[in-house]
Amino acid sequence: MRKNWKAYRLPARGWTLAALVLFLSISAGGCSSSRPPASTVPAPAPGSYDEFALDEPEALAPADTTSATPIVPTDESLLAKILRSHPSLQPLEELYVHGGEAYNQRDWDLAEEHFLLLKQKLQQVQDAPQDSLALLYLSSLQRKVDYFAEILAEERFFSDSYAPISLSLEDAYDSLQAHYGIPQFLLPQRPPAEAGSLEELLATDNEMVRRWLKYYQGRGRGQFARWLERYERYGPTMKAILADEGIPEELICAAMIESGLQADIRSRAGAVGWWQFMRSTARHRGLQVDEWIDERRDIEMSTHAAARHFQLLHRMFQDWALALAAYNSGEYRIQRAIGLSGDIDYWTMRLPRETRNYVPKFIAAARIVAHPDSFGFGRIHAEPFRFERIELDDAYSLTQIAKVTGIGVSTLRAYNPQLLAGVTPPGRKNYALRVPVGKSEGALAALSTIPENERITWRKHKLRRGETLGSLARRYHTSVSAIMQINGISNARRVRAGRVLTIPYPRGASIPRTASTKSSPSYTPPPPGKRAWVYTVRKGDTLAGIARHSGSSVTEIRHLNHIRRDRIYPGQELLLHVDQDRELAGARKLDLPEADKTIYTVRRGDTLSGISRRFTVRLADLMRWNHLTSKSRIYPGDRLQILRSSAD
C-alpha cells in the first residue's frame, strides 16, 4: 500500500473525491463479518499469556469472515465500518473492550495484562503497511491505551495492591515534595533511606551472568568499548551526584545498559535520555519536560532524579535485584509478580524476558567496568566532561550565543542537550547554561552586548489554510528547524491547518499581519496606470474567473497574493491590480494611506540585498514592490519604495 502511495500521489484538489470514493466503496461492499458483542467473548484469566511471545488467546482470534451475501447495516458507526472492512483489527478492539471491563470491575491485574498485550499487538500492526482508515483507528487506539496506562498507575497508587501503606505514603511524600516543593519538615518524619551495598549482588555467578559476560567480550565487544569510552567521559559527573544522593556509584551501569550513556536516545516505548525516563515518571521525580526543555536529557538533573527513584525502589523492596528489576519494568509489575506467586527471589520470579535479563546484564557490565583489563578491554583514556555554568537573565538562541562568544553551536548543543528548540527557556530567569571550562567569564561579557530586541520570545500561532512552516519561518524571522524541534514535528509536510504551533522568534522582529478572512493582504503598489483593489472570494469563485472579472491574469494574482496553487476559499481576501478606468464589483479600493511608504534613493555601492537588510524587509518583497526581477539592476539615483504595514 505504501509503495502505491508514493508512486501515485494525488493532486491536492483530488483528495476530497478520493475520500468520497473510498467511503462509498467501504459502505457498498467488503467483508461481512461484524464485531461480536463484547459480552459473548470470554475474558482470559490473569497470567494466561506467555510473557515472552504474548500469543493471542484463542478467544480473541479473528472470526471467520467468509459469507455468501454481505450484509451492510445502514446505520453502522465509523468504528463498525472500519472493523467490518479490516477483520485483522477486531482482536485489538476485543482486547481493549475486555481490558475496559476488567478496569470497571477494579481488577487491575487483569486490566493491565490486557493492555500490555494490546500494546504489543499494536506495535506489530503499526509496523505493517496500512490504509488511511486503519491508521485512523490505530492512532486513536494508541492514545486510549496510553491514557489507560496512566489511569491504571493512579488507581494502583491508591489501592491495596500497590504496596504496604507505609511504603505508599513514602512515595506520596516524594511526589508532594517533587510537585509542590513542600518542605521536608512539614511532612511526617521517616527514617533516612539506607542505600545498602551491591557487593552481594555483584558477586552473583550463574549461567545468565556468564552468558552476558561472554556476549560483551564477543559479539557485543565493539558496543561495550564505546560504552567504556563514554563512561570515562561522563562517569565522574554521575559518580559525584550519586555519592551526594547516597547511592552506590555502580548504578551508573544501569544508565549504561539503558541508554549507552547518551543524552538523545529515545526508546520505542517513548523513554528518553541518560536514564530512559518515561514522561510521567520524569515529572513525578521533579524533571521539567515541555516544549522548550527536556531535563531527561540533562546529565545532572536526570541523574539526581534517577538516584531519588532508586532510593524509593530500594526502600520499597529492600533488595537491589528487585529494585533494578522494578526500574526496568515498573514497581507495579514487580509488586504484582510478588503478590501472584509469593516469591521475592528475583532469580526464580516469573518476569518478562527483558526484565529477567536486565539484572544479569547489569552485573556483567559492572564487573567489566570495575576491571576492564581482566576482561580483555584496555584502559581507555577520554577527556572528562568538565564545564562551567553561566546564569542567563533572558532567553537567547544558541546561534546568538555562538555568534558573540565564539563557542560553536554544536559544542553548546553537546553541553546542553536538554534544550529542545535551540533556545534557552523564555520566561525562566537565572537559567544555568553549560559552557566549556574557561569560557564563562568571556561568554557573560559577550552576551551583555546583545540588544534586548534581538533576544528570544515566542507566541502561539494557529496554522491557517495555505500556510507552511517555511512561510511561518519567514514571517517570524526564525527557521523551519526551530519550529519543528519545539513542536515535535518530524515531517513538515504532514502538518495540517488548525494545529496550534509554538513559534520562537527575536523579540524585536517586525511580524506582519497574515492574510485571513478578517485582514487585508500585504500591500503591493500597482504599476502606472493601475489601481489596487481587495476582492473578497465568494463561494464558487475560481482564480480564472476572478482574473477574467478584473482584467488580470491567474499568474499575476498568484504572485501578488503568494498563492502556490489555484486553491482559494470563501472569505479569503485577494489583492488585485486593475486598470485605472475600470470598476470592480464586489471589491473595495485599497488606497496608499493604508501603508507606510518610504522612498529610498539608491547610493553608490548599494545592493538590493543590502537595502533589504537595512530596512528589515524581505528581498522578495522589495523586488515585488518595485516590479524588479532577478535580472534587474539598480543604479545610483534610482528611487525605491519600501512599504510597511500600518499594523506594524
Brief synopsis:
This protein has 648 residues and is mostly helical.
Explain this structure to me?
This protein is mainly alpha-helical and 648 residues long. It has six domains: 25-157, no CATH class; 165-375, Lysozyme, CATH 1.10.530; 388-450, no CATH class; 456-506, LysM domain (Membrane-bound Lytic Murein Transglycosylase D, Chain A), CATH 3.10.350; 530-590, Roll (Membrane-bound Lytic Murein Transglycosylase D, Chain A), CATH 3.10.350.10; 593-645, Membrane-bound Lytic Murein Transglycosylase D, Chain A (Roll), CATH 3.10.350.10. Helix 11 packs across helix 16 and helix 13 packs across helix 14 (320-329). It is built from 25 helices and nine strands.
- Largest β sheet strand count, sense and barrel closure: 3 strands, antiparallel
Q: What number is the mean pLDDT?
A: 76
Number of domains: 6
Q: DSSP strand (E) fraction?
A: 5-15%
Shape: flat
Distance from first to last alpha carbon: 49 Å
Helix fraction bin: 40-55%
Strand order of the largest sheet: 6-5-7
